[in-house]
Design goal:
The structure is a homodimer.
Chain A lengths: L11 H11 L3 E3 L6 E3 L1 H20 L3 E2 L5 E3 H4 L3 H7 L5 E4 L2 E3 L6 E3 L4 E8 L4 H11 L8 E10 L13 E11 L2 H22 L5 E4 L11 E8 L5 E11 L1 H5 L3 E3 L5 E3 L1 E8 L1 H10 L16 E5 L4 H20 L4 E3 L7 H10 L4 E5 L1 H6 L1 E6 L5 E5 L3 H26 L1 E3 L3 H11 L2 E5 L4 H11 L2 E6 L7 E2 L6 E2 L2 E5 L3
Parallel strand pairs in A: 3-9, 17-18, 17-19, 22-23
Antiparallel strand pairs in A: 1-2, 4-8, 5-8, 6-7, 9-10, 10-16, 11-12, 11-24, 12-13, 13-16, 14-15, 19-20, 20-21, 23-27, 24-27, 25-26
Helix pairs in contact in A: 2-6
């Protein structure tokens, strides 16, 4: 295991925090609750953005940008919405500073108080639906399929890098439709996109489902989500897609003339994933040696490290390395040749291992003689010596294997940490001592959900979309239940 | 000219505003001074971002993300900096809302007042240099070449879409170097990147130069800039690159151990371009028929419009259109086939003309017979009938011609609106009645610059980098001058 890295066993939360910082992903800033995303972490986020953006555009969405500020009064328009966000709003009250009279520095200029306070967007439904009112008159203006990449602020008391920060980066889609069916179809289409992204790119298996009323988005009719299981047995909500019904259209008076020439309220969806995905990515695959990245999201997929003790050998190794590098680049593989002489090979091995580079190629004097290279996989930590012939093909194949292996590993971890439970004692035991997803019957009431949460800190993560009706009795109240739902403690 | 569009002659400012709104680029939001960037405008911004981002990365820069908030006390650390920005700061004072006691809605919760107010970043030097302190210990940590894509807020009383808004989008580069020479080299390298972007991509000729002390960035030693001339004879600062010396390193105590094992303050640069470039792009080329876009930044480079009066003809035209479309796409040309039957060809012609699509291809029944298409250029409004053979090659060539022509036109406009002036009367006359760039002698004092501004509203836009020393007398004070500088009224 890596030096100075707390192990998962010792303290999972500490392991995560140490890992994020030591792998140069992010760090806490001078502003409470706000993080700095460092270049290595940001490079991963940029890859994520690129993939998701393409998926959105391929399904007809376009990007736009709406203001950072929301007038306070907009919040009150949708009752559930304001209830959900009022307690975590950063509020702008003034627009000027001035020199303190006593020369001690700058102070807020009380003459520059805003007539109406502005909220930093915690999410943009209100400002966007206020804007849509002018954009939508007729069914011809629909659907409106818009996404925004932006920063948002939700004031948090306890923060954790990527997982819960007062400011975070995200995308938020806001679509408008002529009828309920089309809006629900959009909600589910996006849920599929999120699922595909999580599983194919992040190598992270997720459960698709719907939230219980307690857990749904403030202002939504239904919240759909993808839910993943982390190595400590806690669940992480990785993305949400909301069917908003006509709630925001009514709150902001957005009506359209239908094909039948009737004035109707517009149907809405909203959906988002955030830099929280970075936390999920890190926690899903990494180990006590540091970060483990799926090749498809790695800023460096292959690193080549030369091992030499004289200039002549270095020259020959370099030739070979550059040859491999260009062969891999021709296949679109991101490869770095680390030819720095200020660091030793052993240091470099540890460094790239810690940073989760999927594949390391080492080339030493013996490899020159034998026309070989040594290849080390980050996921299994296995090494093998490969003949140079066809090396680009072999590397590409290995990267695919690593991607597949990470998914399989995460999938089987989830499988072996998912329990069907029918007694309250067993439920408590698993939640408290093992963690994982617990499939159990629930009577469908908010009250029961609340009491289970109070007693065990477990919440309903999702009501699975693909589960069959299975009559049973609520694990807590004994009342009838129509299907099992997924409980877990969660991030 | 386009219906309902004010002409440039009538009212240039109104023409600009109408154009931005009617071309679906942007609009004012419900929040004073903040704009909504609409999908068509944002698509252009995304292309700009992509090109610039690649240029930065190709020169060794990486992206990162720093907090939106800056503690108020950070501002006071660099005296010029706080002086420059204090009057336009949006200030966060509270972090929670609550229900009003009288049930009238939500109000700011006075119990949730921040100990220290937070400023929404107007620019990020202070928070970034506070962070760099922990990242830089030795010369081995240098240079640090970091860029950030972000939103910033500078509270403005009079705003104009894209040109001056309270919130805007931009990139801000912040680099750290071991010595003065390297930092200056970086400042100039970025100025070259901005110049190349303006001229090769935006088709916008710019003057490269240095700002007078009055006009430089608050906290900089020297501010370099690119300056463009708009059609109304006013100048527009399109990008700035600052050599910050050791000012911020000293303010935030960022020292490093040099190769010679001495503790030294780090040298800095910062540089940025913003959504203001969108304003420059629009004003530089557009006309009384609407937007004119250089092909390299157009979201739609070619639009194909079918002209038909029966289904059979439409089918044949479609076949041909799709054939052209895929031939153009194979060359990387962005082409749209507008086959909607809800709009007439004439309406479509006007629409795409207004939105500045560089090339329009119309296909009618006669074109089917003759194996031709009709091609119309947006820049010259010229039409010609082309044989289908080799059409992709012809279109690609035409797009390049349009790109070149727009640059040439803007260049010759600037040339014919640049004046060498040696008398104060002539200076005033040109500034007040003609506009344009005025090359005149200046005695080098802030006082003279200020008085010229008071009397004519003209400022020194730039002290050109490539001009030769030319002794003369200040146009205002008669004092000796070493070279001419560029005066203009400016956006």
């Amino acid at each position: 295991m890596a030096k100075n890295l707390t192990t998962r066993q010792e303290n999972y939360a500490q392991w995560y925090n140490d890992l994020v910082i030591r792998a140069d992903m992010a760090e806490n800033s001078a502003v409470r609750g706000c993080m700095v995303i460092k270049p290595y972490g940001y490079a991963i986020w940029e890859i994520m953005q690129g993939v998701l953006d393409k998926m959105f555009k391929d399904t007809g969405h376009v990007n736009a940008y709406f203001p950072l500020f929301i007038p306070k009064s907009f919040f009150s328009r949708e009752a559930d919405h304001v209830e959900g966000f009022a307690k975590e709003c950063a509020v702008v009250t003034h627009y000027r500073l001035k020199n303190a009279a006593d020369g001690s520095g700058v102070v807020v200029d009380e003459d520059a108080r805003l007539e109406e306070e502005l909220i930093i967007r915690p999410t943009s439904e209100t400002i966007i639906w206020d804007t849509y009112r002018n954009w939508i008159q007729s069914y011809r203006d629909l659907p409106l399929l818009i996404n925004q990449w932006a920063n948002v602020v939700r004031w948090e008391m306890r923060t954790r890098l990527f997982l819960r920060t007062s400011e975070f980066l995200w995308q938020e889609g806001h679509t408008a439709h002529a009828n309920r069916e089309e809006a629900i179809e959009e909600t589910l289409k996006i849920l599929d996109i999120y699922t595909e992204f999580a599983e194919k790119w992040m190598a992270l298996p997720v459960l698709k489902g719907i939230k219980s009323p307690n857990e749904k988005f403030a202002g939504a009719v239904d919240t759909y989500c993808i839910e993943a299981l982390m190595q400590d047995g806690k669940a992480l909500q990785a993305g949400t897609s909301h069917f908003l019904g006509q709630n925001f259209a009514k709150a902001f008076d957005v009506q359209f003339l239908s094909r039948e020439n009737k004035l109707e309220y517009v149907w809405a969806t909203s959906w988002g994933v955030s830099t929280r995905l970075m936390g999920a990515l890190i926690m899903a695959h990494s180990d006590d040696n540091g970060l483990v990245l799926p090749p498809k999201l790695a800023p460096i997929q292959v690193v080549i490290v030369p091992i030499y003790n004289n200039e002549e050998t270095f020259k020959k190794i370099s030739e070979k390395a550059l040859q491999i590098q260009s062969a891999l680049q021709a296949r679109g593989i991101k490869v770095k040749f680390d030819d720095r002489d200020t660091y030793k090979p052993g240091w470099k091995f540890t460094e790239y291992e810690f940073k989760g580079v999927p594949l390391r190629i080492a080339i030493g004097p013996r490899d020159l003689q034998n026309n070989t290279v040594e290849v080390a996989r980050r996921d299994t930590l296995e090494k093998e010596v490969l003949q140079m012939a066809d090396i680009d093909n072999k590397v590409e194949h290995l990267l695919q294997q690593i991607q597949d292996n990470l998914f399989r590993k995460a999938y089987s971890f989830r499988e072996s940490n998912t329990y069907k439970v029918d007694s309250w004692d067993e439920f408590r035991d698993i939640i408290e001592n093992k963690g994982g997803f617990v499939l159990a019957h629930w009577d469908g009431t908010a009250e029961t959900e609340e009491r289970i949460k109070d007693e065990t800190k477990a919440t309903i993560r999702t009501i699975p979309l693909d589960s069959r009706p299975e009559p049973g009795k609520c694990i807590f109240s004994g009342q009838p239940s129509r299907q099992r739902v997924v409980f877990a403690r969660a991030y």
